[in-house]
């Protein structure tokens, strides 16, 4: 027998509250980090980093390089090409501009200058990304060899000498600023300017315009992803409106998903049942079954049109000799003598016997001309 549990064997029930399990933590790179551990590939150094300073010291700037020498590849050192810009919301148009600058000559060391937030706000307007974010976006582009932060809006001789710049790369469209029609005009006159081309259909202004155009969509998306109304600078009523729209869209999506699932289930069940219906139909109305049904029906039709004979051998149940005596003396019967008086008394009045009339009318159905062809056709089948 099983031993009954004693009081000491019963473990006490814990009444302590259950501590919720914390969400798993994912390892993330710090915003500011040292890339020395990445030995295979690293972002471009800043102009004040040791790697960039060593490259600057190795450059013999006394050997001036002309455009024709650089194009022909007849240089004793790397050609230092400078490109500058804001590079807000770094996109493929920026990358293609830097790619062109990197490939303008056979052996290029590409230096990219990025203006800071204060100068950009004063000269062009507010940016979406801050200076640090724009620096990091550019220095992680594989065409870039060096980054110059806090770059000037216009280039002077002192800046060019400091960074030992041989050529400046920019698009050829005149860029005016500070009352000057084209800030790159002096460099063009010296033969130190190389032109790049813009990428059609893409710019930072276009990207900002898309966001402004679909403002409600992006606000709803970020609210759904956990951003607060304060972080998005949205009023209380607007937040409730956007959250209600998100909920309605969620219900619509769920309804469509369930409807699709129901449709699939119905179609699947119909396919299964249709196979059963087809099998049952073929079993009942297949070729062999139809032939049997036709033969049985044909026999019944022939039997209906040609009734079977009577036991005495007649064709339709009548006496075969009855038709032979229709014209005999039994066809007429004499009236009683009392019918003989009167004006017709001398005549012996005879009436046709009813049973003989029926016998004469009861001809074989199959002997009638209008049905003989139908019977013969059915028998031939």
Brief rundown of the structure:
The protein has 381 residues and is α/β, with parallel strands linked by helices.
Q: What is the element layout, followed by pairings?
A:
Elements: H1 50-58, H2 67-72, E1 79-85, H3 92-102, E2 108-114, H4 117-123, H5 131-139, E3 146-149, H6 157-162, E4 167-171, H7 185-190, E5 193-196, H8 204-213, H9 215-224, H10 236-285, H11 287-305, E6 332-334, E7 350-352, H12 354-361, H13 369-380
Parallel strand pairs: 1-2, 1-4, 2-3, 4-5
Antiparallel strand pairs: 6-7
Helix pairs in contact: 9-10, 10-11, 11-13
Pathway: Lipid metabolism; Phospholipid metabolism; phosphatidylcholine biosynthesis; phosphatidylcholine from phosphocholine: step 1/2
Pfam family, one: CTP_transf_like
EC number: 2.7.7.15
Got a strand count?
7
From the spread of the alpha carbons, the general shape counts as elongated
Largest sheet: 5 strands, parallel
Helix tally equals: 13
Question: What amount of the residues lies in strands?
Answer: 5-15%
Structural class: alpha/beta
Mean pLDDT score: 79
Question: Under the CATH scheme, which architecture of the domain at 40-196 would be assigned?
Answer: 3-Layer(aba) Sandwich
- List SSEs in N-to-C order: HHEHEHHEHEHEHHHHEEHH
**Unreliable stretches:** 325-332, 342-363
Q: Which CATH class of the domain at 40-196 applies here?
A: Alpha Beta
Q: Strand arrangement, largest sheet?
A: 3-2-1-4-5
Separation of termini? 85 Å
Helix content: 40-55%
Question: Can you characterise this structure?
Answer:
The chain is α/β, with parallel strands linked by helices and 381 residues long. Among the domains are: 40-196, HUPs (Rossmann fold); 204-302, no CATH class. It has helices at 50-58, 67-72, 92-102, 117-123, 131-139, 157-162, 185-190, 204-213, 215-224, 236-285, 287-305, 354-361, 369-380; strands at residues 79-85, 108-114, 146-149, 167-171, 193-196, 332-334, 350-352. Strands 3-2-1-4-5 form a five-stranded parallel β-sheet. Strands 6-7 form a two-stranded antiparallel ribbon. The radius of gyration is 56 Å and the shape is elongated. Mean pLDDT is 79; it is low at 325-332 and 342-363.
């Amino acid at each position: 027998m099983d031993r009954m549990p004693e009081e000491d064997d019963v473990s006490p029930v814990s009444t302590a509250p259950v501590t919720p399990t914390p969400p798993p933590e994912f390892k993330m790179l710090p915003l500011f980090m040292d890339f020395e551990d990445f030995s295979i590939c690293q972002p471009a150094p800043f102009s004040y980093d040791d790697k960039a300073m060593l490259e600057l010291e190795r450059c013999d700037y006394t050997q001036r390089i002309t455009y024709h020498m650089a194009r022909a590849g007849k240089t004793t050192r790397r050609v230092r090409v400078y490109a500058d810009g804001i590079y807000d919301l770094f996109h493929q148009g920026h990358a293609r501009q830097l790619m062109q600058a990197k490939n303008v000559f056979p052996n290029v060391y590409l230096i990219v200058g990025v203006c800071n937030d204060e100068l950009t706000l004063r000269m062009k307007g507010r940016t979406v990304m801050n200076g640090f974010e724009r620096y990091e976006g550019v220095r992680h582009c594989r065409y870039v060899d060096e980054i110059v932060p806090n770059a000037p809006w216009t280039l002077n001789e002192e800046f060019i000498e400091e960074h030992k710049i041989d050529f400046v790369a920019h698009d050829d469209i005149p860029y005016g600023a500070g009352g000057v029609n084209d800030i790159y005009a002096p460099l063009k006159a010296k033969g130190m300017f190389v032109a790049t081309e813009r990428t059609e259909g893409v710019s930072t202004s276009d990207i900002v315009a898309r966001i402004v155009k679909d403002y409600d969509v992006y606000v709803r998306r970020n609210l759904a992803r956990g951003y607060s109304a304060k972080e998005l600078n949205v009023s209380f009523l607007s937040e409730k409106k956007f959250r209600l729209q998100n909920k309605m869209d969620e219900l619509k999506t769920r309804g469509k998903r369930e409807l699709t699932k129901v449709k699939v289930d119905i179609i699947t069940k119909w396919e299964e049942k249709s196979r059963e219906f087809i099998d049952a139909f073929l079993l009942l109305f297949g070729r062999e079954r139809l032939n049997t049904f036709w033969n049985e029906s044909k026999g019944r039709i022939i039997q209906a049109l040609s009734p079977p004979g009577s036991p005495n051998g007649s064709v339709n149940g009548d006496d075969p000799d009855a038709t032979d005596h229709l014209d005999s003396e039994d066809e007429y019967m004499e009236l009683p003598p009392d019918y003989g008086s009167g004006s017709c008394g001398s005549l012996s009045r005879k009436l046709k016997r009813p049973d003989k009339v029926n016998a004469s009318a009861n001809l074989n159905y199959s002997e009638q001309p209008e049905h003989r062809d139908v019977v013969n056709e059915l028998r031939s089948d």
